[in-house]
Amino acid sequence: MSSDDKLIDFVAERDKRIHDLRDKKLNELREAFEQALPLPKGKKKPKSKPKKP
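^ thats the sequence. predicted structure below, dont judge the formating
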């Protein structure tokens, strides 16, 4: 069996392909959310607790 080096693990290849497709969809959703709800670019001011007298 000299053709062992040419064997393809179809399960592993399918997992990679499915993973890539899910990553692509996740990135598309992330971009859509960023367009709909843009995050503020500036620094957030820390909320200070009111001092008790």
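Helices lie at 10-36.
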